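[step 3/7] inverse_fold.run input=structure_tokens len=232
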């Protein structure tokens, strides 16, 4: 069996680095506008600049990192206009997804989603905020996955990722705009096949999320080595 080429190894390493940075952003450990200094990242991950630049380019494509000429890379800082536009799209896409699931003859996957809500609640009660934040977004992605429409899923995954980034900007750690109680209500309506109620609950939920995110900005300084070296 042939060994992986150096190019393949570098690409795999870059993807792994991108995932580490992505997780730190989405779990609110790296707040928006944090400068992602190449030299510091090279030290943390013990790699050359090429792997770091590949990883940052991946994250730039996902719109959760911005790269500015002569300034470097930063965790993205969504504007208020972006907040409104992202949630407008989420209401359209998720509303269509939930309605489709309600009308489906088979709703396989609902038990898994119910278990996810239980873990979301447990994470909140035990103050495991990174897991809580991740699960609150995964609830929405999992519902989209149940439609079987990969284009819809890709679209919503990107929107949820950007929403989580926004919540890192406009929410303090330990305050998630996404409520597991509301998730439970939406799921119950889906289980009953009540499309009108499920869509109405979903849109009310997203309206509430958007308003909570605009409550107040959260500011915190971080050290890249402290944040990203955990578990290495």
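[step 3/7] decode complete -> sequence:
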């Amino acid at each position: 069996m042939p060994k992986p080429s150096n190019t393949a190894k570098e690409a795999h390493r870059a993807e792994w680095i991108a995932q580490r940075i992505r997780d730190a952003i989405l779990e609110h450990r790296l707040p928006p506008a944090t400068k992602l200094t190449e030299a510091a990242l090279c030290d943390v991950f013990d790699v050359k600049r090429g792997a770091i630049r590949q990883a940052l380019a991946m994250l730039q494509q996902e719109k959760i990192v911005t790269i500015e000429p002569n300034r470097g890379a930063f965790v993205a800082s969504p504007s208020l206009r972006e907040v409104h536009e992202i949630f407008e799209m989420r209401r359209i896409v998720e509303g269509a997804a939930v309605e489709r699931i309600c009308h489906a003859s088979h709703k396989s996957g609902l038990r898994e989603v119910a278990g996810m809500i239980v873990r979301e609640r447990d994470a909140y009660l035990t103050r495991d905020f990174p897991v809580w934040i991740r699960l609150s977004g995964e609830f929405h992605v999992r519902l989209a996955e149940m439609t079987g429409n990969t284009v819809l899923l890709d679209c919503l995954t990107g929107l949820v990722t950007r929403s989580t980034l926004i919540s890192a900007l406009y929410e303090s750690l330990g305050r998630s705009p996404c409520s597991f109680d509301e998730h439970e209500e939406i799921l119950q309506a889906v289980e009953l096949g009540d499309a009108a109620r499920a869509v109405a609950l979903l849109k009310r939920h997203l309206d509430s999320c958007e308003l909570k995110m605009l409550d107040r900005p959260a500011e915190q300084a971080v050290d890249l080595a402290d944040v990203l070296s955990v578990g290495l």
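[step 4/7] annotate
The chain is about 70% helix and 5% strand.
The chain has two domains: 6-76+220-228, 80-213.
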